[in-house]
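Example for tutorial group B:
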């Protein structure tokens, strides 16, 4: 290793044609992205409205993954793309839900980054026993989530609706591959 050459400046600004000044102006937070310029802000009442929906969205994700495990134990995982096709959620909302579920150990990623419910996730879901009215608003094409007074057995089953949503997701994914 050689030492730097004597007399060489460590700053190359003169070589680049940039003039250095010692009296730089202080940074103005309003001009540099502070709170008044579109920086971080609290959403206010909207935050509190979304809080309950977050918990219900996480329950819906667990229901989808639990159903997948029951229906296809040899391949119990779903890709994030599969979930996006099935869920009524933005990528940000789904990402937030997945972060929480993974941190709690209720969902895990397999060796291909696909998602699957854990034993703790199954136990959690079984202890919560969510209703179709809680879950189905988060499943795409599940507008008939309101239960009738005397519904047919298929209409009562959250799993049958999830199965239909999974099938639609698989069909859409197959179309994309073609």
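The residue assignment follows.
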């Amino acid at each position: 290793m050689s030492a730097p050459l004597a007399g060489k400046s460590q700053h190359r600004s003169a070589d680049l044609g940039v003039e250095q000044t010692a009296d730089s102006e202080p940074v103005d937070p309003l001009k540099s992205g502070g709170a008044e310029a579109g920086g971080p802000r609290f959403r206010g009442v909207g935050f509190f409205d979304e809080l309950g929906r977050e918990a219900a969205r996480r329950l819906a994700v667990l229901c989808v993954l639990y159903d997948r495990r029951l229906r296809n134990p040899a391949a119990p995982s779903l890709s994030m793309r599969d979930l996006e096709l099935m869920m009524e959620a933005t990528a940000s909302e789904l990402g937030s839900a997945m972060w929480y579920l993974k941190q709690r150990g209720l969902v895990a990623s397999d060796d291909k980054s696909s998602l699957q419910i854990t034993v703790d996730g199954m136990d959690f879901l079984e202890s919560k026993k969510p209703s179709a009215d809680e879950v189905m608003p988060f499943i795409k094409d599940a507008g008939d989530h309101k239960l009738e007074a005397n519904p047919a057995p298929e209409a009562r089953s959250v799993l049958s609706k999830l199965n239909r949503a999974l099938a639609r997701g698989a069909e859409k994914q197959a179309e994309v591959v073609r």
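The first helix runs from residue 45 to 71. Compare this with the pattern of hydrophobic and polar residues in the output above.
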